[in-house]
Amino acid sequence: MFNISKRLPWISSGLFWRTFFLLTFLITVSLAIWVSSISMVERAPRARQVASQIVSIVTVTRDAISNSAPELRKELLIDLKSNEGIKILPLEENDQIEDAPGSEMVSQIEANIRARLGPQTRFAGKVNNHDGFWISFDIEGDPYWLGLERERIERSSGIQWFGWAGVTLVISMLGAVFISGLINQPLARLTAATHAIANGKVPEPLPEKGPEEIRETNRSFNQMVADLNRVESDRALVLAGISHDLRTPLARMQLEVEMAHLPDDARQGMQSDLHQMDAIIGQFLDYAKPTDSSTFTEIDLSSLLLDCAQAAGRMPDLHIQTKVADNVTVKGNPTDLKRVFNNLIENARRYGKAADSEITELDIDCRINGDNAVIKIADHGPGVPEADIERLLRPFTRLDTARGQANGAGLGLAIVDRVIRRHEGKMRVRNRSSGGLVIEIGLPRA
Fold first, then answer.
1. Helices (H), 84-157
2. What is the pTM of this model?
């Protein structure tokens, strides 16, 4: 089935429909006012025209009957009824009469006819169960009814009016669709570009054409993207320098500590501090490291997870149960994803122990759900207070229970979330009903 929202993404936006319905409402109201105005303006001239036609019919009919031979009048009446739709009935006092349906148009017609035929003229909508528009008149002193088809006085073009109004409304609505799209398309492009930046991608430059406001906005946005790319490059260069400038003296200090004549406790403490400083520098570099989607390759996620679980399972205080579907493939950077899973496993090993156990029980699950690969890493530990779950993903945030990195800067889960988002995935953190924390990751399948 043709999906117009996929062909024209801007159609699905709320602003598009607001603009469309507003334009449609304004066009419909304007059209209704226009039709009403035309109707009011033409009512009086049309009433005079119809009244003149009816008076002419009455006059011609009276003259034709008066001047015809008595033996031919019956044939004349039949001919008038069959050919002209004119009925002639004698007016009797006991006639069953129903008034004509009241309307502004009919009232004006009746007033114009009375002004021409005299105030004694009577009107009826039904005479002796015969429908029509009936007018009284005299032939040689005898009263008669003259009946016309109601279509002669009603607006015979009413259906045409509605038809033209409907066609005009449809064309106007198509124009509203075009105008709404024209207005919202630049905003849709801008929204798509901002989403690309949020996902760590470099968007295509926005076209600097159209109205001045759109050109200026797109030009400013393109300049902002160029500035961000330059800042990102400068930051990578600065961080590379920091890594070199800091880790070189750290390595020298590590060597000096090893060679110095120090007590074992002092040496171990200094070595622990140096390792912690090195780990913090590594976290900063991992968090700031840009991800180039052009280097993504097809990854056998099933094998990658099993390798990570097997390597971590050698630790004596960690027991891992895996339930990984076969042949789950995604596109991404294998080094970054391996770092993500190792980070999560290590985080769970440190803080996911049950209160009555010295061993961390960890469940790793991977399955296919539609177009996504869903990975769950769940422990059996104390979990995290619900109010603090959202804070876990913020950079430089560490809870009292230290569900981030104990020897780091609070960037562990922030790095994971950043890498997953750059792989166009989503990460969700929640507590298990049976106890423990669950990290659920969804990645697009290759």
1. 104-117
2. 0.47
